[in-house]
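Hi F.,

I've been meaning to write this up properly since the lab meeting, where we talked about keeping a consistent format for the predictions we share between groups. The idea is simple: the sequence comes first, exactly as it goes in, then the structure tokens exactly as they come out, then a line or two of notes. No screenshots and no reformatting. I'm using this chain as the first example so we have something concrete to point to.
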Amino acid sequence: MKGMGGMMKQAQQLQARMLKMQEELAGRTVESAVGGGMIRVVANGRQQIVSVRIEKEVVDPNDVEMLQDLILAAVNDALSKSQEMVSSEMGKLTGGLKMPGLF
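Output, unedited:
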């Protein structure tokens, strides 16, 4: 039984470190820029979009579809970068062990 108690304690410590890491990652951001930097999207470690910047030169009322495509590409790239950041940092805690549902 001593071994099981030790494993439980290690699991609790890992969980506490993961919660702390998640809080830290929420404050970190990644940025995506598309269209030569005309559209910039920033996402945080919670996979939330925190800002979108669109340069006025890219806004063409006659080509709204291009603007929509650029925004979509920037948002998806920012979220992908955010997920990569979280996976990388959490992987450091778990030694590369994948833990579905945790991150």
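Notes:
The chain has a mean pLDDT of 88.
The two ends are 30 Å apart (CA to CA).

If this format works for you, I'll send the rest the same way.

G.
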